[in-house]
Design a protein that fits this description.
Helix content: 55-70%
Largest sheet: none
Structural class: mainly alpha
Number of helices: 6
Order of helices and strands: HHHHHH
Radius of gyration: 20 Å
Oligomer: single chain
Shape: globular
Strand content: under 5%
Number of strands: 0
Protein backbone atom coordinates (compact mmCIF):
# COMPACT_ATOMS: atom_id res chain seq x y z
CA UNK A 1 0.00 0.00 0.00
CA UNK A 2 1.40 3.36 -1.01
CA UNK A 3 1.49 6.08 1.61
CA UNK A 4 -0.65 9.02 0.55
CA UNK A 5 1.11 12.36 0.49
CA UNK A 6 -0.47 15.17 2.47
CA UNK A 7 -2.54 17.74 0.60
CA UNK A 8 -2.58 21.30 1.87
CA UNK A 9 -5.74 23.07 0.67
CA UNK A 10 -4.61 26.34 2.27
CA UNK A 11 -1.50 26.33 0.08
CA UNK A 12 -3.68 25.80 -3.00
CA UNK A 13 -5.72 28.84 -1.96
CA UNK A 14 -2.61 30.95 -1.42
CA UNK A 15 -1.22 29.82 -4.78
CA UNK A 16 -4.49 30.85 -6.43
CA UNK A 17 -4.40 34.30 -4.82
CA UNK A 18 -0.78 34.76 -5.86
CA UNK A 19 -1.59 33.73 -9.45
CA UNK A 20 -4.50 36.18 -9.57
CA UNK A 21 -2.29 38.99 -8.25
CA UNK A 22 0.32 38.30 -10.96
CA UNK A 23 -2.45 38.30 -13.58
CA UNK A 24 -3.79 41.62 -12.26
CA UNK A 25 -0.28 43.08 -12.24
CA UNK A 26 0.22 42.26 -15.93
CA UNK A 27 -3.29 43.37 -16.90
CA UNK A 28 -2.74 46.63 -15.02
CA UNK A 29 0.47 47.33 -16.91
CA UNK A 30 -1.06 46.43 -20.27
CA UNK A 31 -4.10 48.62 -19.60
CA UNK A 32 -2.18 51.60 -18.19
CA UNK A 33 -3.02 51.00 -14.51
CA UNK A 34 0.35 50.13 -12.96
CA UNK A 35 -1.04 50.57 -9.44
CA UNK A 36 -3.15 47.41 -9.86
CA UNK A 37 -1.48 44.69 -7.73
CA UNK A 38 1.74 46.73 -7.73
CA UNK A 39 3.51 44.35 -5.34
CA UNK A 40 2.61 41.18 -7.23
CA UNK A 41 6.31 40.57 -7.85
CA UNK A 42 6.30 39.19 -4.31
CA UNK A 43 3.94 36.48 -5.55
CA UNK A 44 6.74 35.15 -7.76
CA UNK A 45 8.95 34.89 -4.68
CA UNK A 46 6.08 33.14 -2.91
CA UNK A 47 5.83 30.65 -5.78
CA UNK A 48 9.53 29.85 -5.37
CA UNK A 49 9.10 29.26 -1.62
CA UNK A 50 5.94 27.22 -2.12
CA UNK A 51 7.57 25.13 -4.83
CA UNK A 52 10.54 24.41 -2.58
CA UNK A 53 8.31 23.35 0.29
CA UNK A 54 6.01 21.16 -1.81
CA UNK A 55 8.98 19.58 -3.57
CA UNK A 56 10.71 18.75 -0.30
CA UNK A 57 7.54 17.16 1.06
CA UNK A 58 7.00 15.18 -2.16
CA UNK A 59 10.57 13.91 -2.62
CA UNK A 60 12.09 13.79 0.89
CA UNK A 61 11.25 10.15 1.56
CA UNK A 62 12.18 9.01 -1.95
CA UNK A 63 15.57 10.73 -1.76
CA UNK A 64 16.12 9.38 1.76
CA UNK A 65 15.51 5.88 0.40
CA UNK A 66 18.38 6.28 -2.04
CA UNK A 67 17.08 7.99 -5.18
CA UNK A 68 20.14 9.35 -6.96
CA UNK A 69 20.44 13.08 -7.55
CA UNK A 70 20.76 12.32 -11.27
CA UNK A 71 17.41 10.46 -11.29
CA UNK A 72 15.79 13.34 -9.42
CA UNK A 73 17.26 15.84 -11.92
CA UNK A 74 15.89 13.82 -14.86
CA UNK A 75 12.43 13.75 -13.26
CA UNK A 76 12.48 17.53 -12.75
CA UNK A 77 13.71 18.15 -16.31
CA UNK A 78 10.99 15.90 -17.74
CA UNK A 79 8.45 17.90 -15.73
CA UNK A 80 9.72 21.42 -16.54
CA UNK A 81 11.35 21.29 -19.97
CA UNK A 82 8.20 20.82 -22.09
CA UNK A 83 7.08 24.33 -21.04
CA UNK A 84 10.52 25.73 -21.76
CA UNK A 85 10.57 24.14 -25.22
CA UNK A 86 7.01 25.21 -26.06
CA UNK A 87 7.55 28.83 -24.98
CA UNK A 88 10.86 29.09 -26.81
CA UNK A 89 9.52 27.62 -30.05
CA UNK A 90 6.42 29.87 -30.06
CA UNK A 91 8.56 32.98 -29.59
CA UNK A 92 11.13 31.84 -32.15
CA UNK A 93 8.36 31.19 -34.68
CA UNK A 94 6.90 34.65 -34.05
CA UNK A 95 10.26 36.35 -34.59
CA UNK A 96 10.98 34.20 -37.66
CA UNK A 97 7.63 35.29 -39.08
CA UNK A 98 8.60 38.92 -38.46
CA UNK A 99 11.83 38.34 -40.42
CA UNK A 100 10.09 36.62 -43.34
CA UNK A 101 6.75 38.43 -43.54
CA UNK A 102 7.62 41.91 -42.30
CA UNK A 103 11.24 41.93 -43.50
CA UNK A 104 12.29 43.04 -40.00
CA UNK A 105 15.97 43.88 -40.44
CA UNK A 106 16.52 44.47 -36.71
CA UNK A 107 16.42 40.70 -36.15
CA UNK A 108 19.23 38.58 -37.52
CA UNK A 109 18.77 34.90 -38.28
CA UNK A 110 22.08 34.16 -36.52
CA UNK A 111 20.99 35.83 -33.28
CA UNK A 112 17.54 34.25 -33.42
CA UNK A 113 19.12 30.82 -33.99
CA UNK A 114 21.48 31.34 -31.08
CA UNK A 115 18.68 32.56 -28.79
CA UNK A 116 16.56 29.57 -29.79
CA UNK A 117 19.37 27.12 -29.03
CA UNK A 118 20.07 28.76 -25.65
CA UNK A 119 16.36 28.81 -24.83
CA UNK A 120 15.84 25.16 -25.76
CA UNK A 121 18.80 24.21 -23.56
CA UNK A 122 17.46 26.48 -20.79
CA UNK A 123 20.69 28.44 -20.63
CA UNK A 124 20.81 32.21 -20.09
CA UNK A 125 21.81 34.38 -23.04
CA UNK A 126 23.49 37.43 -21.59
CA UNK A 127 24.02 39.46 -24.77
CA UNK A 128 20.65 39.44 -26.53
CA UNK A 129 19.67 42.56 -28.44
CA UNK A 130 16.44 44.44 -27.78
CA UNK A 131 15.11 43.28 -31.13
CA UNK A 132 14.67 39.73 -29.85
CA UNK A 133 13.82 40.52 -26.22
CA UNK A 134 17.08 41.56 -24.57
CA UNK A 135 18.33 42.50 -22.06
CA UNK A 136 16.33 39.66 -20.49
CA UNK A 137 18.52 36.60 -19.94
CA UNK A 138 15.93 34.46 -21.73
CA UNK A 139 14.97 36.86 -24.55
CA UNK A 140 12.53 34.57 -26.31
CA UNK A 141 10.66 33.69 -23.13
CA UNK A 142 11.20 36.24 -20.35
CA UNK A 143 9.58 34.24 -17.51
CA UNK A 144 11.78 31.25 -18.37
CA UNK A 145 14.29 32.51 -15.80
CA UNK A 146 11.95 31.20 -13.11
CA UNK A 147 12.06 27.67 -14.54
CA UNK A 148 15.84 27.92 -14.96
CA UNK A 149 16.22 28.92 -11.32
CA UNK A 150 13.84 26.20 -10.23
CA UNK A 151 15.89 23.57 -12.06
CA UNK A 152 19.18 24.85 -10.60
CA UNK A 153 17.83 25.10 -7.06
CA UNK A 154 16.07 21.72 -7.26
CA UNK A 155 19.24 19.95 -8.33
CA UNK A 156 21.34 21.80 -5.74
CA UNK A 157 18.82 20.89 -3.03
CA UNK A 158 18.85 17.21 -3.98
CA UNK A 159 22.66 17.14 -4.08
CA UNK A 160 23.24 19.11 -0.87
CA UNK A 161 20.40 17.83 1.31
CA UNK A 162 22.53 14.96 2.59
CA UNK A 163 24.97 17.41 4.17
CA UNK A 164 24.37 17.90 7.89
CA UNK A 165 22.41 20.96 9.06
CA UNK A 166 25.38 23.25 9.71
CA UNK A 167 27.17 22.25 6.51
CA UNK A 168 24.00 22.87 4.52
CA UNK A 169 23.51 26.27 6.15
CA UNK A 170 27.10 27.26 5.35
CA UNK A 171 26.69 26.13 1.73
CA UNK A 172 23.55 28.26 1.36
CA UNK A 173 25.22 31.32 2.88
CA UNK A 174 28.32 30.84 0.70
CA UNK A 175 26.18 30.52 -2.44
CA UNK A 176 23.96 33.47 -1.56
CA UNK A 177 26.70 35.89 -0.58
CA UNK A 178 27.87 36.68 -4.15
CA UNK A 179 24.24 37.24 -5.12
CA UNK A 180 23.69 39.70 -2.27
CA UNK A 181 26.66 41.92 -3.11
CA UNK A 182 25.16 43.54 -6.26
CA UNK A 183 21.89 44.23 -4.42
CA UNK A 184 23.73 45.75 -1.46
CA UNK A 185 25.91 47.97 -3.64
CA UNK A 186 23.35 49.04 -6.29
CA UNK A 187 20.02 48.45 -4.59
CA UNK A 188 17.13 46.25 -5.60
CA UNK A 189 15.61 46.55 -9.08
CA UNK A 190 12.09 46.24 -7.64
Amino acid sequence: MTRQRPHYAALDGLRGLAAISVLLFHLGHWQGHPWLAANAGLAVDFFFCLSGYVLSVAYRDTLDQGMATRTFAVLRLVRLMPLVILGTLISAAYLAARIVLLHDSTITVAELSRATAFGLLCLPMLDASRAIGGPQVFPLNGPQYTLFLEIVVNIAWAALRRIDGMGSALAIVAAGYPLAIPTATRGSSR
